[in-house]
Amino acid sequence: MQLSSRELEEKIRSREEIKQMLNALFGGFGPNREVGFDEREGLHLDALPRLRTSRLISEELLDFYAEQYARNGIHGTFLFVQATKDIALPPAMSQNMEHFIPQLTRKEVKCGHWALWERAEEVNRIIGEWLDGSEPKDSERSML
What we know:
Blueprint (H helix, E strand, L loop, with lengths): L6 H5 L3 H11 L11 E2 L3 E2 L15 H14 L5 E6 L13 H4 L3 E6 L5 H4 L1 H15 L3 H4 L3
Parallel strand pairs: 3-4
Antiparallel strand pairs: 1-2
Helix pairs in contact: 2-3
């Protein structure tokens, strides 16, 4: 709910704050292993400045995404690729997402949790088709 509301745009305004938020979403954690995001409570805004950089995303990509969100806002169009055999994040967990994310495109791939490894070509095709429909600028496309 927190990510679908305008609450974050009111509290997270600067490029650096956006970068901290993204770092939390990619699993950044603090010196005492505290998290900046959990699925029950959402973002822990007070913890964001203390988080170490996540190993899941490069500093270059964090900077790129933070710049895009700073320019365009946190809300926009979204693609969700559901792995239909995912036991960690089963399809039932994403039911009714459309009600909270109005501009959501949903796609499915028949595989387990690691869709990008198990069905790399299919997932890349889905992402490519979605991006073509979203019409990003050529300079943005090269980073995605």
